[in-house]
Amino acid sequence: MLAVCALSMFLVGVDTTIVNVGLPEVGRGLGVGTRGLEWVVDSYTVVLASLLVAAGALADRFGRRLVFQCGLGVFGVASLACALAPSLGFLVAARAVQGVGASMLSPVALAIVVNAMPDPRERARAIGVWAAVFGLSMAAGPVTGGALVEAFGWRSVFWINAPVVVVALVLVAVFVPESRGRRDRRLDLPGQALVTLALCASVAVLIEGPRIGWTSPAAVAGYALVAASAAGFVRVERGRPEPLMDLGLFRRPVFATAVLGAVAVFVALNVSLLLTTFQLQQARGWSPLAAGTATLPMALGATVCAPWSGSLVGRLGPRRPLVLAGTFTAAGGLCLVDLGPDTGLPLLLAAFLCLGIGFGFANAPLTNTAVSGLPASRAGVAGAITSTARQIGAAVGIAVAGALVADVAPGDLTAAARPGWLLVAACGLCLFAAAAASRPAKPRTNQIGTNRIGTNQIGTN
User: Fold this and answer.
1) pLDDT value of position 379
2) How does DSSP assign 119-174, residue by residue?
3) Major facilitator superfamily (MFS) profile domain spans which residues (predicted)?
């Protein structure tokens, strides 16, 4: 059962990053530029971010296995549609449907694992595996995508999902028991609509702003739409007995800085992946396989440090892992500020290793910081919000990086990308704020009963 649920998590994470390395090939195949390609990635992440919390409510009401199976089915069909896409618009729409399916996999699979393993120690070990799979999936996407694009073309990054989904559906039917929440949660449809509108409008302005002009009437209308939908969301949520998001949590500095840190980590990761894709393939002329292989140190660092971080949080609290995450993330960004055709391979690999280590160390302590001091009834909500924040960070990172390199000649990519690498370093510094706000480690006797298990359980969501 754990293997089946972890497999779904791997699918969701890989599809967040696997397309990045194939974007130049997608552009050549469909005849579109960088700005259009940003929507191929962000249509997936925006929808995924918008629906994560609602998917959890649906699973509690109608059954986790049922919703999980529906998510797998939607994800698989949408993957086939992506592979057959005849145009950019069709591909973007299919990617959005993929995001709908993915939103029913990640939080629901975690709830299945937690519900089926009542023993705290067994559950903690299972969530440790979950953490390693999560870190590996996000960082391994470019490597996997590069190999597939090189061997079979860009459509293969979507074809590969189909057999995996079929196997997962069979295994779910055999091994995964049905379960439901202790009480039904009401669906907050107005809040869901407003938060989706706010996210889509924000990403649209970031992607299209350089093309239409930041002060153009269309851009100003976009700003107004973002502000109105965000204000409407806050007003609606404050008046509902069971809101989509508990906005009262943001009054806690510890929680707010942790959510900011979660956004920062995924902004840094996705800015790094997209800038590297275009600089290595367009400025240096590397193949997709070579560009993807160059990120192997990132995958290695994330895979090793994700479970290690959970262990450190259990023994020492979240502060030290967050300091390590911020240090390595900032160092990785600074190493690549002048990335160009003449940058040596050792520096490039060292920078990717630093970024992978920073990413691996960040996830568990960030959510530990978010849920620190909260009662159990609110910890799940906090974990869901931090998961949403990660996907928002991914969407914003793609939009910002794409805006920097869109319509830029290969010879000018070094200068165009420099603000992006400085942004990656700044995201590392944001983690120091989360570290400063985090609670110090509790005595060892309390860590076994609460911190250690609670951190791994929620932190990897």
Assistant:
1) 54
2) SHHHHHHHHHHHHHHHHHHHHHHHHHHHHHHHHH-TTHHHHTHHHHHHHHHHHHHH
3) 1-443
